[in-house]
Structures are given as structure tokens and as C-alpha cells.
């Protein structure tokens, strides 16, 4: 049996990311997967990307990463431009190299992870929408095929919506890993642990656990205020609102 930590949606919140990685290390877990949105919203996009890159075995692209490498989008979006300017050329090249999807077998089940949906990093799938739409998360698409789709998955995990949940739909497991940096369900950093037989093709026990990690929200807020004052970070009020009330803001 092996345990894999799955993190997502850090959004430049370094106190939250450090707390999560410390908890993961304390559990003796060395294999970490990241489902994107390392950057955007929060004050330390470069630092978050660097630490994820150093700590994680695999990373998929999120919508914020896609936004900062989209030249046309950056021209019209001051927030994306601010975050892009802090990343620099080498980090942007790293983002361009990120895959859309991760796939492996565990305990006889096919597992697929992506940021938001099998269609696009921009297609948002909330846990409360129709069952038909949620079942669409198990579909093979042109985007998943480009990353080497292996047939319909038995387990799908994603990030993007910042709401951690687990559901079973027609004998398939669907989960959202929640958010490290700006959760919308409770103000603690969230990640998942999947345990099973890594690359195991035969049926075997498998589990999924959600971990909530308290961290210093005031420290994260102070860093954001300083970045807004000294470097003109956009969206300060929205970021602070998401830290303290979990409301998305505008």
C-alpha cells in the first residue's frame, strides 16, 4: 500500500502551502500530486510555484497558469499581468510544459486527475449541479486524449471549485481535492490522501481521506497587504475576503 497526497489551488498563499507540506512530511508521504492554480489571486505566485515544483512529483496546469501564458489574455487582464510579471521567463516556460491530465492505476482502478474538467481548465463543475453534468467528468475528450487517455476512468479527482467533496456516481468515485490557499467551505487549508496499491492492476483496498490543516491566516493577510501597498497587487479585498469568509468575491 502507498499513500499519495493530492493538493490544489494554492493561489500564492505561502503560509497555507508550507503548513500543508509540513503536515504531509510529518505523515511520511513523499509522493505529492498538484492539480494546478499555484499562482493567481494571492501575493506570492513565484514562491508558490517554486515550492510546488520542488515538492511535487507531478503537476497539471490550472486555469490561472493558462491565463498567465495567454498573451492576448494578459494584455486585457491587469491581474493576470501582475502575476505573470512576477514569474519570469523560466517559470512561464515551466508552466507551458505542464500536462493537462494525470493518469495512473491504483488498487485495480483507473485514476484520472485534472484541474477543472476533461473539456478545459476553464469549465467549472460544482458539486451541486446535475448528476448528468457531474458524470461528464468521467468522459474522454480531445483534451484528455492528447495526454494519453487510457479509457474511461474509475476514479476522477479535480480542483478548481475550492469545495472538497466525495461522491459515488454509478459505481465510480468522484472527488474534489479542495483548496490549499483559498477554500470556500471552511477557512483551513485542505488536501487529500489516496491510499492503495500503486500501479496495481488487481482489485485491492483503496481509500481517500480529506485533511484540514489550520494555518496562520493573519500572516497570509499581512503578506497580501504588504504586496498591495508596495507592488500594487490587484484584488486585495477579494483575496482577504476569501481568506476569512470563504466568499468568492468579484
List the helices and strands and how they pair.
Layout lengths: L1 E6 L6 H13 L4 E4 L10 H11 L2 E2 L3 H6 L2 H6 L1 H8 L2 H9 L4 E6 L2 E6 L16 H5 L6 H5 L8 E4 L6 E5 L2 E5 L12 E8 L10 E7 L3 H15 L4 H10 L5
Parallel strand pairs: 1-2, 2-3, 5-6, 6-8
Antiparallel strand pairs: 1-9, 4-5, 7-8, 9-10
Helix pairs in contact: 9-10
What would your notes on this structure say?
The chain is an alpha/beta fold. The protein has ten helices and ten strands. A five-stranded mixed beta sheet has the order 3-2-1-9-10. Strands 4-5-6-8-7 form a five-stranded mixed beta sheet. β1, α1 and β2 (31-34) form a beta-alpha-beta unit. The protein is globular and about 55 Å long. The model has no long low-confidence stretch (mean pLDDT 94).
Defining traits:
250 residues; 35% helix; single chain; alpha/beta
Q: Helix and strand string, N-terminal first?
A: EHEHEHHHHEEHHEEEEEHH
As a whole number of angstroms, the C-alpha radius of gyration is 17 Å
- What proportion strand? 15-25%
By DSSP, the count of extended strands is 10
The shape is globular
State the helical fraction. Answer: 25-40%
Amino acid at each position: 500500500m502507498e499513500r499519495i497526497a493530492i493538493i490544489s489551488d494554492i493561489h500564492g498563499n505561502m503560509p497555507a502551502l508550507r503548513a500543508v507540506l509540513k503536515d504531509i512530511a510529518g505523515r511520511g508521504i513523499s509522493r505529492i500530486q498538484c492539480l494546478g492554480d499555484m499562482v493567481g489571486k494571492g501575493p506570492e505566485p513565484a514562491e508558490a510555484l517554486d515550492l510546488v515544483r520542488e515538492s511535487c512529483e507531478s503537476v497539471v496546469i490550472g486555469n490561472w497558469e493558462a491565463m498567465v501564458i495567454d498573451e492576448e489574455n494578459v494584455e486585457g487582464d491587469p491581474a493576470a499581468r501582475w502575476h505573470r510579471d512576477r514569474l519570469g521567463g523560466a517559470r512561464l516556460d515551466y508552466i507551458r510544459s505542464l500536462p493537462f491530465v494525470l493518469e495512473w492505476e491504483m488498487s485495480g482502478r483507473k485514476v484520472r486527475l485534472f484541474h477543472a474538467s476533461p473539456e478545459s481548465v476553464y469549465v467549472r463543475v460544482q458539486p451541486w449541479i446535475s448528476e448528468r453534468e457531474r458524470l461528464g467528468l468521467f468522459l474522454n475528450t480531445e483534451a484528455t486524449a492528447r495526454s494519453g487517455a487510457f479509457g474511461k476512468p474509475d476514479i476522477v479527482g479535480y480542483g478548481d471549485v475550492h469545495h472538497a467533496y466525495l461522491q459515488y456516481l454509478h459505481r465510480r468515485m468522484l472527488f474534489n481535492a479542495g483548496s490549499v490557499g483559498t477554500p470556500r467551505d471552511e477557512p483551513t487549508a485542505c488536501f487529500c490522501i489516496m491510499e492503495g496499491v500503486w500501479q496495481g492492476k488487481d482489485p485491492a483496498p483503496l481509500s481517500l481521506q480529506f485533511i484540514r490543516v489550520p494555518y496562520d491566516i493573519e500572516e497570509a493577510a499581512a503578506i497580501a497587504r504588504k504586496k498591495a501597498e508596495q507592488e500594487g497587487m490587484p484584488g486585495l479585498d477579494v483575496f482577504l475576503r476569501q481568506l476569512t469568509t470563504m466568499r468568492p468575491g468579484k
